[in-house]
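Milestone 3.1: sequence recovery, worked example.
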């Protein structure tokens, strides 16, 4: 175990404290036609209605979408960015932890398990 790895673990753990709320999914900004034959959205080229914001995510294996207000969309985008940052922090912790366990297993004469 190196001091550098221990410092990296402390740094990564500290970055978790600054994270904030996390949510999974994607926020989409969409422009849609309404379907009325005389509406501007049916012209060529179409002048679609919107923007509309949707939050799409998986819930028990099914895709779920919810319409959002612009302020809700801004908030959810931040939380989704926090979720992706969390994923990067956890992946970095796993890499450092693997590097830290290799010498322990080598000293015991056993290869580390993935």
């Amino acid at each position: 175990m190196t001091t550098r790895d221990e410092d990296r673990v402390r740094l990564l753990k500290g970055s978790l404290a600054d994270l904030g709320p996390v949510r999974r999914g994607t926020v989409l900004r969409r422009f849609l036609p309404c379907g009325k034959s005389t509406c501007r959205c049916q012209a060529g080229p179409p002048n679609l209605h919107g923007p509309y914001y949707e939050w799409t995510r998986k819930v028990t294996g099914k895709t779920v979408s919810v319409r959002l207000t612009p302020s809700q969309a801004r908030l959810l985008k931040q939380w989704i960015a926090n979720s992706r940052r969390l994923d990067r922090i956890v992946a970095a912790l796993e890499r450092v932890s693997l590097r830290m366990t290799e010498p322990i297993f080598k000293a015991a004469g056993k290869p580390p398990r993935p």
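The mean pLDDT is 91. The two ends are 18 Å apart (CA to CA).
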